Amino acid sequence: MQTSSIKKIEEGLYAIESLACMHCDERVTVQIDGPQIWAMNQGEPAHIVMPFATAGLRERFISGTCETCWNRIFGTEED
Question: What is the DSSP letter of 8?
């Protein structure tokens, strides 16, 4: 997972910010807890670190591409 910053909000709660989308420069910040930040630092895949997240949000932290740009470039499942 790729992040541009990790900030401690309070004990056991962190805010992680995505890298800027390489196409539109948008960033996203999500909150994760202690076990999730540990999993991220151990190299666990995004679906383990952020089980609450949509596929589009997880992709943001994997490839750096936001869901809107991804769909514009590659289309959607319905296309």
Answer: E
